[in-house]
TrEMBL record:
Coiled coil: none annotated. This is 5,6-dimethylbenzimidazole synthase. Its EC number is 1.13.11.79. The gene is bluB. It is an enzyme of class 1 (oxidoreductase). The keyword Disulfide bond does not apply. Transmembrane segments: none annotated. It comes from Hoeflea alexandrii.
């Protein structure tokens, strides 16, 4: 039996509290280059990282680490590594799609006053981790939950965040001194913004559209074809 002295009442949020949660979810955006130069105060950074650290994790293994990066020289090296990978990525598209890709502005690494690299220590918790016995990727999924917590907290603080995924892991590990055994999950750019797109930028700029939710919901079994 659980120790009832350790349990808290599971009361629903007030209407205002609930609306604030949904507002953070629905107005969160991937910010690419709209960052202001104003630095983020240390106490705000701490709140954001506390929110990330309070994410759920399978087996309560908490596999994440957070590397905060404000040094301009380090960010310049990361930006150069990104630029090399971005050229490779652009070459994978053809025609109009390639032109549209090249028109997207991805300047957050240098422009945002704070970068954060989120990693996953896949050895944390030992060889056998509760809940990970049959799906070895649960530690990675748990780390992504920390990223989402960070993103929603940033939105609540009026801070924009962008996720940079175009780089070679080896380049980033070399720049940041990350051991080979550690997995890089996310490289994030954070900073204050004075405006956000009403819809996701890639939707606004015609790259893709949000899929209808009803097309993605199945009941009892898979209904999406082979």
């Amino acid at each position: 039996m659980p120790n009832t002295s350790m349990l808290a009442a599971a009361q629903p949020f007030t209407t205002g509290e609930r609306d604030a949660v949904y507002k953070a979810i629905f107005t969160r955006r991937d910010v690419r280059d709209q960052f202001l130069p104003e630095p983020i105060p240390n106490d705000v950074i701490r709140r954001l990282l506390e929110a990330a650290h309070n994410a759920p994790s399978v087996g309560f293994m908490q596999p994440w680490n957070f590397i905060t990066i404000r040094n301009q020289t380090v960010r310049d090296r990361v930006a150069d590594a990104f630029a090399r990978a971005n050229e490779e990525a652009a070459a994978m598209f053809t025609g109009e799609r390639q032109s549209r890709y090249k028109s997207l502005k991805l300047e957050g690494i240098r422009k945002a006053p704070l970068n954060i690299c989120v990693t996953c220590d896949r050895e944390r918790g030992g060889k056998v981790v509760l809940g990970r016995t049959h799906n070895s990727s649960m530690d990675l999924y748990s780390t992504v939950c920390a990223v989402q917590n960070l993103w929603l907290a940033a939105r609540a603080e009026g801070i924009g965040m962008g996720w940079v995924s175009i780089f070679r892991d080896a380049d980033l590990k070399s720049i940041l001194g990350i051991p080979d055994r550690i997995e890089i999950v996310a490289y994030l750019c954070l900073g204050y913004v004075d405006e956000l797109y009403e819809r996701p930028e890639l939707e606004v700029k015609g790259w893709n559209r949000r899929l209808p939710l009803d097309d993605l919901i199945f009941e009892d079994r898979w209904r999406g074809g082979d």
